């Protein structure tokens, strides 16, 4: 902020009357505000208000709804008296009066404004491709290095812009910006004191970005769009591609510079001798003008010397030699009238005549007798500098930064209402140039007329602020840290909901399964009852117990019989599995404790290795003695095939060869005498 000047008594009187000056709507008396329950209903839409704060006026727009068919509730343009700045009680009072007539009775609006500070900064950054969870840290430290901010003094935030190609490498882009905490606090307090607390606070370039993101203003079919916003003390060129601000450049040529050019030409011609030292226009070089507006000295995508762009800025020191004006007859005041001293207001009136296309001054005016073309000739050197800076910026954006070519140019602010300026810019830049007027063709409140002193382009920035929300617009109140916390909270909520849904689905499946099983058992029970009913007699519990005991006795007798004859069955199994050439001499069954009992630790280890079997339990063993005859070369294979066959028997396990040796047989033949040991498997009842 620039230094605040003392508020004079005349300025305070102007503050009291300013709410009704230059208003685009008829102000009704202030009504008592109450809570409107209809705003909470699903069909109700909240009133949204955008406030564009400049050095000389407040421009406000109130809308209902934020989609393409939003409804305009009111427009307001209120002059700010000289010396009244944010942070002063007079400014808060001015805000309250300006907003009271715009909002619906009984409804609390959502108000968005733009931060006003020369220390605000916005810059396009690129980082290497990293995982999604590391993007925030990578952007923060890159911005810390390139922008050099202190988080104790500013609020830092950024928007992700996806993948971009830089020097042939794919990187991740982000539009980062900083806002001084002091400026945020001042505006928050002012709006709170005015009775309209802020819902969000952003930077002015993002207001125009909303118009493209909401599709209120359509972009070109190919290429990017550049918007030239001409303010009181500075101008700003914004380049938008696919609904995103990609480049912002501040230009010092402004409305005050144009007023100074007209003033200098009038003074150099000596159209009227000033009765007192002429005061320069507000904001002109060398004059103590109004406070600075936001100055965003930004070089998107590049802040190094590689950019290669030097802007031809207006001089910021004492006034230079006046530009030569058009040569023509010097108008003289009419006979009998005394010419008024040359003042800054005279230059402003002539500039406004060109801006709004209508020149009407009295014969006492120093510019009496001039035509619009004459005034335009006075402005031509300044307008040429402005156009040259626009051309250099567009060339830098296309050639140095390698971005899409700009195919359309729009103009916002008061200059957007001048057909002469639009034609001049279009002729020199060579691009289609039109006013950025999102209100054109839309129904407006009764008694509202755009044009003349209130061009539609004047309200473009305020309308963009009215269309702001946390989902479409960066806000100093909700930075990337809060958004990351919200994403984490939302993911946690979604995870809990998914888990709860899975649990409910599982319980539902179990319930359905249990119900189906119950129905099946009920059908089986009914079928058995029907069969029982067919027997014609009921069962006797004593008879059933007796039958059960008889059946148990028979089963035990069968088990004892099977146990006695089990050995015979095992011998038969061993004989049947013997291959050709193997003769069984004898089979012996042994029952008793193991050969080498193990201690407790070794027995537990062996039990774990043998599927829980106790190695010290009694063992039933089958000893097989036999001889393999025939070809001596096949003795080993015959013995191995016999062992394999025994291992495949369900009655035997743990087959081992105890002895295997050659011995002579009768007739001079040779045989392989062997002894095999096999444990009997446990019999199950």
From TrEMBL:
<protein>
    <recommendedName>
        <fullName>Pilus assembly protein PilM</fullName>
    </recommendedName>
</protein>
<dbReference type="InterPro" id="IPR050696">
    <property type="entry name" value="FtsA/MreB"/>
</dbReference>
<keyword id="KW-0472">Membrane</keyword>
<feature type="compositionally biased region" description="Pro residues">
    <location>
        <begin position="321"/>
        <end position="332"/>
    </location>
</feature>
<keyword id="KW-0812">Transmembrane</keyword>
<keyword id="KW-1133">Transmembrane helix</keyword>
<feature type="region of interest" description="Disordered">
    <location>
        <begin position="316"/>
        <end position="340"/>
    </location>
</feature>
<feature type="transmembrane region" description="Helical">
    <location>
        <begin position="496"/>
        <end position="516"/>
    </location>
</feature>
């Amino acid at each position: 902020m620039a230094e605040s000047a003392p508020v004079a008594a005349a300025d305070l009187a102007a503050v009291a009357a300013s709410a009704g000056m230059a208003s685009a709507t008829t102000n009704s008396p202030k009504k008592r505000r109450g809570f409107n329950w209809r705003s909470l209903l699903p069909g109700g839409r909240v009133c949204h208000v955008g406030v564009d704060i400049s050095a000389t006026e407040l421009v406000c727009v109130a809308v209902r709804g934020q989609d393409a068919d939003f409804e305009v509730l009111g427009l307001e343009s209120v002059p700010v008296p000289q010396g009244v700045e944010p942070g002063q009680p007079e400014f808060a009072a001015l805000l309250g009066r300006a907003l009271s007539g715009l909002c619906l009775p009984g409804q609390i609006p959502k108000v968005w404004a733009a931060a006003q500070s020369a220390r605000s900064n916005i810059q396009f950054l690129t980082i290497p491709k990293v995982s999604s969870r590391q993007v925030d840290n990578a952007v923060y430290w890159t911005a810390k290095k390139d922008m050099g901010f202190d988080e104790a003094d500013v609020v830092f935030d950024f928007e992700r812009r996806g993948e971009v190609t830089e020097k042939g490498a794919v990187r991740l882009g982000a539009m980062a910006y900083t806002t001084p905490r002091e400026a945020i606090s001042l505006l928050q307090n002012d709006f709170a004191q005015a009775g309209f607390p802020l819902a969000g606070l952003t930077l002015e370039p993002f207001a125009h970005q909303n118009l493209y993101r909401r599709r209120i203003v359509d972009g070109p079919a190919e290429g990017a769009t550049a918007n030239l916003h001409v303010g009181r003390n500075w101008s700003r060129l914004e380049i938008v591609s696919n609904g995103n601000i990609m480049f912002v450049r501040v230009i010092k040529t402004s409305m005050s510079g144009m007023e100074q050019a007209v003033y200098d030409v009038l003074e150099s011609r000596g159209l009227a001798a000033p009765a007192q030292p002429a005061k320069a226009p507000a904001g002109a070089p060398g004059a103590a003008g109004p406070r600075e507006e936001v100055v965003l000295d930004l070089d998107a995508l590049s802040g190094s010397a590689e950019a290669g762009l030097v802007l031809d800025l207006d001089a910021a020191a004492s006034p230079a030699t006046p530009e030569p004006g058009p040569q023509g007859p010097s108008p003289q005041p009419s006979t009998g009238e005394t010419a008024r001293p040359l003042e800054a207001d005279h230059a402003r009136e002539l500039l406004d005549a060109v801006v709004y296309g209508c020149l009407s001054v009295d014969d006492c005016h120093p510019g009496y007798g001039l035509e619009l073309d004459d005034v335009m000739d006075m402005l031509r050197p300044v307008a040429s500098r402005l156009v040259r800076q626009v051309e250099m910026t567009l060339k830098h954006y296309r050639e140095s930064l390698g971005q899409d070519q700009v195919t359309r140019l729009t103009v916002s602010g008061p200059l957007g209402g001048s057909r002469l300026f639009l034609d001049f810019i279009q002729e020199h830049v060579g691009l289609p140039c039109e006013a950025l007027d999102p209100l054109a063709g839309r129904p407006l409140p009764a008694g509202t007329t755009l044009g003349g002193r209130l061009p539609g382009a004047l309200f473009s920035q305020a309308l963009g602020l009215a269309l702001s929300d946390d989902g479409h617009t960066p806000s100093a109140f909700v930075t990337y840290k809060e958004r990351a916390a919200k994403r984490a909270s939302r993911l946690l909520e979604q995870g809990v909901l998914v888990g709860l849904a899975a649990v409910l689905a599982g319980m539902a499946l179990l319930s359905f399964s249990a119900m189906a099983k119950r129905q099946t058992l009920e059908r089986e029970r009914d079928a058995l009852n029907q069969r029982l009913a067919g027997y014609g007699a009921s069962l006797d519990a004593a008879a059933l117990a007796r039958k059960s005991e008889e059946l148990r006795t028979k089963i035990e007798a069968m088990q004892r019989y099977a146990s006695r004859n089990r050995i015979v069955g095992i011998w038969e199994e061993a004989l049947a599995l013997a291959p050709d050439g193997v003769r069984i001499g004898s089979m012996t069954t042994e029952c008793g404790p193991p050969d080498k009992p193990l201690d407790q630790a070794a027995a537990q280890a062996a039990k774990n290795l043998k599927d829980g079997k106790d190695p010290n339990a009694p063992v039933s063993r089958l000893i097989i003695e036999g001889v393999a005859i025939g070809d001596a070369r096949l003795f080993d294979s015959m013995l191995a095939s016999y062992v394999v066959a025994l291992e495949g028997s369900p009655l035997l396990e743990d087959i081992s060869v105890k002895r295997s040796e050659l011995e002579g047989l009768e007739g001079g033949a040779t045989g392989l005498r062997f002894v095999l040991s096999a444990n009997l498997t446990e019999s199950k009842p």
